[in-house]
């Protein structure tokens, strides 16, 4: 998370202590990113490969490495899986989350509906839109870090976020109508 993120430097970059600290601090975050891109079944493979690359390229790992690691994970995914296959896996994972995970607190019925609507809307987004929103909202990257991961400028990121939010709002409206049986024009007798 930007400059507040702890630095991964406890020892010399060539040491196993340095790598152990890097792995311990960031594996869960990289794994979480991978889950949102390729689903739980493949996330560990992507995260593990990311850290193999980090070890091999330890001389270029930045002092605050989260955005760099997520960028590496993103490239690993690009190399291993075609766009269509990833899209299907993500949609299936989001659907599973929407139907099996319990809400955390508050009015249970309202939270279930809200959560399902949001997950359906996210699953319906094009992968490009979903990725930018997940980097910022789910993974907590700053706009600068998200732009770095995506390989674009901050103004380009701003445009992508604006477009993605518009698409998400449209899909939330659609999912809300689908979740509300009264909104389809049904009338009571």
Can you walk through the features of this model?
The structure is a single chain. This protein is mainly α. The protein folds into 2 domains: 1-81, Rna Polymerase Sigma Factor, Chain: A; 83-181, Arc Repressor Mutant, subunit A (Orthogonal Bundle). 72% of the residues lie in helices and 0% in strands. The protein has 8 helices and no strands. It has helices at residues 16-38, 40-56, 66-80, 83-100, 108-124, 127-138, 143-150, 154-179. Helix 6 (127-138) crosses helix 8 (154-179). The longest helix has 26 residues, at 154-179. It is globular, with a radius of gyration of 19 Å. The N and C termini lie far apart (55 Å). The model is unreliable at 1-9 and 185-189 (pLDDT under 50).
Task: Give the integer mean of the pLDDT values.
Answer: 80
How large a portion of the residues is in β-strands, by DSSP E? under 5%
CATH architecture grouping of the largest domain? Orthogonal Bundle
Low-confidence stretches: 1-9, 185-189
Order of helices and strands: HHHHHHHH
Structural class designation = mainly alpha
End-to-end CA span: 55 Å
**E-strand count:** 0
Sum up the overall morphology in one term.
Answer: globular
> How would you describe the oligomerization state of the chains in this entry?
single chain
Number of domains: 2
Q: What's the CATH H-level superfamily name of the largest domain? A: Winged helix-like DNA-binding domain superfamily/Winged helix DNA-binding domain
Keywords: DNA-binding, Sigma factor, Transcription, Transcription regulation
Family: Belongs to the sigma-70 factor family. ECF subfamily.
Protein name: RNA polymerase sigma factor
Organism: Actinomadura violacea
């Amino acid at each position: 998370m930007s400059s507040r993120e702890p630095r991964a430097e406890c020892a010399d970059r060539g040491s196993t202590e340095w790598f152990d600290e890097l792995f311990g601090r960031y594996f869960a975050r990289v794994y979480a990113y991978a889950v949102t891109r390729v689903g739980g079944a493949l996330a560990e493979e992507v995260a593990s490969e990311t850290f193999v690359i980090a070890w091999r390229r330890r001389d270029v790992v930045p002092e605050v490495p989260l955005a760099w690691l997520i960028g590496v994970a993103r490239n690993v995914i690009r190399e291993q899986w075609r766009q269509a296959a990833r899209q299907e896996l993500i949609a299936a994972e989001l659907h599973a989350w929407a139907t099996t995970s319990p809400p955390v607190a508050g009015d249970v019925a309202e939270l279930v509906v809200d959560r399902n609507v949001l997950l359906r809307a996210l699953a319906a987004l094009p992968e490009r839109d979903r990725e930018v929103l997940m980097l910022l909202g789910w993974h907590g990257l700053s706009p600068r870090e998200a732009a770095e991961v995506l390989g674009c400028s901050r103004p380009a990121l701003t445009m992508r976020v604006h477009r993605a939010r518009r698409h998400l709002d449209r899909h939330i409206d659609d999912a809300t109508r689908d979740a509300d049986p009264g909104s389809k024009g049904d009338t009571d007798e």
